[in-house]
């Protein structure tokens, strides 16, 4: 049978000289061409076939998207085929940057949205300044309603045969001319501590008058001890209290300066001063009694507020060293956002205890709880804005937390110009 050489179908079925069919050779070549290269960039047929390349170019031109879209598509294809680069990370970072710029914030770290706390920094600073000025004016004009611990007075230990209520004892003393009495329980409801303003009687006459005044129907009272506190002793207690408050702030300043940085220590001390002066100002404004229990609450408040501030400062220092490419303001916003959940949980649990003491602790713990309640609210606010805003205004930056090698500890590099020296 004659073979038409001009017919391509018959040429494929013509055997070659070694007896193998042409179709097998062609199929084998085709199979080899369909295999991808070892570098994973596609097959030889796609790269070496000019018709395919021309067709792809014509399709790109017909789409009307220009060479810019073509280069973007090629870049995306290179990201998809190159195993050394993760396309999800590259494209994800670009999308996060674009979304952050659109919102006016920064890119979230660890899929966490950043709250711009410092965006309202100036209004909060003005509010704090007004609160401090108002507190100082209230203290200067109204003064503090100092308790018996500071002004002096009479203290008596009383024991009843049966349990009594504090209100009954206060009313009995008021009916007999002993006004402004303070009554506290001493462990049980039968033992009480009675404190009175300064009296003109001596100890013997005062003891007899108190025994008669404290007597209740079917419940006699026995006074075991009566102490008269002079005004001079009260003034010494008052001065020692002010010195203790100032010494506590000074020690906090030194601790934060050594532990962190001086800019942060100044912000922490001003924040603590803000908390103390606002709490005292509220007591002066409304005429609440100010005694040693209230002073103890203020000292406890300083310790609590400093603890919250230290947590924020530790995260600020960590983020300044860890996060790169963001401004100091954004670093502080990031740190405050990361510690927000911890702050909310801490203040919530402490407020529960304070409210329980306020409503269930009796008269002896009432004003102590009120002082803590006011100070906790002021301390949470000041740890977020005052303690973090002042260092930022002072120029806090990453250079304040990076350890630099001193010149005397740098290694000296010695070079020898004479090669014959080692011969």
Give a written overview of the molecule.
The chain is an alpha+beta fold and 423 residues long. The chain has helices at 8-12, 22-34, 44-48, 50-63, 66-81, 87-103, 121-141, 148-151, 166-175, 203-214, 231-259, 262-286, 292-322, 328-338, 340-360, 363-384, 386-393; strands at 145-146, 153-160, 182-186, 188-196, 221-229, 289-290. The strands form two sheets. It has a four-stranded antiparallel beta sheet. The chain has a two-stranded parallel ribbon with strand order 1-6. A hairpin with a 1-residue loop joins β3 and β4 (188-196). The longest helix has 31 residues, at 292-322. The radius of gyration is 41 Å and the shape is elongated. 22% of the residues are buried. The model is unreliable at 1-5, 7-31, 38-97 and 99-107 (pLDDT under 50).
């Amino acid at each position: 049978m004659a073979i038409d050489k001009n017919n391509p179908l018959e040429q494929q079925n013509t055997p070659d000289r070694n007896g193998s069919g042409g179709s097998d050779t062609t199929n084998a070549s085709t199979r080899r061409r369909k295999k991808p290269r070892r570098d994973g960039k596609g097959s030889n047929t796609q790269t070496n076939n000019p018709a395919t390349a021309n067709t792809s170019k014509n399709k790109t031109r017909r789409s009307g998207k220009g060479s810019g879209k073509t280069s973007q598509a090629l870049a995306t294809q290179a990201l998809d085929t190159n195993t050394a680069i993760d396309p999800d990370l590259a494209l994800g970072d670009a999308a996060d940057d674009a979304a952050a710029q659109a919102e006016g914030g920064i890119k979230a770290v660890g899929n966490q949205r950043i709250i711009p706390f410092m965006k309202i920094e100036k209004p909060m600073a003005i509010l704090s300044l007004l609160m401090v000025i108002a507190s100082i004016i209230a203290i200067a004009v109204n003064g503090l309603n100092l308790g018996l611990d500071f002004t002096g007075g009479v203290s008596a230990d009383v024991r009843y045969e049966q349990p009594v209520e504090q209100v009954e004892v206060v009313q009995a003393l008021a009916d007999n001319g002993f006004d402004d009495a303070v009554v506290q329980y001493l462990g049980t409801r039968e033992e009480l501590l009675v404190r009175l303003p300064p009296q003109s009687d001596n100890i013997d006459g005062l003891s007899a008058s108190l025994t008669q005044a404290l007597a209740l129907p079917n419940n006699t009272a026995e006074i075991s001890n009566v102490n008269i506190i002079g005004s001079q002793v009260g003034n010494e207690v008052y001065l020692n209290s002010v010195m203790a408050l100032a010494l506590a702030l000074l020690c906090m300043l030194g601790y934060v300066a050594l532990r962190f940085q001086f800019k942060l220590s100044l912000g922490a001390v001003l924040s603590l001063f803000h908390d103390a002066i606002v709490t005292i100002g509220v007591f002066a404004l409304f005429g609440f009694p100010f005694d040693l229990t209230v002073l103890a609450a203020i000292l406890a408040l300083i310790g609590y507020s400093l603890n919250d501030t230290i947590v924020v400062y530790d995260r600020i220092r960590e983020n300044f060293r860890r996060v790169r490419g963001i401004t100091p303001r954004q670093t502080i916003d990031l740190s405050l956002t990361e510690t927000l959940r911890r702050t909310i949980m801490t203040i919530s649990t402490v407020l529960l205890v304070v409210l329980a003491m306020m409503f269930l602790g009796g008269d002896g713990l009432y004003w102590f709880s009120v002082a803590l309640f006011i100070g906790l609210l002021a301390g949470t606010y000041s740890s977020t804005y005052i303690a973090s805003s002042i260092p930022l205004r002072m120029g806090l930056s990453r250079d304040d937390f990076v350890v630099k090698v001193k010149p005397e500890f740098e290694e000296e590099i010695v070079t020898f110009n004479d090669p014959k020296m080692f011969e």
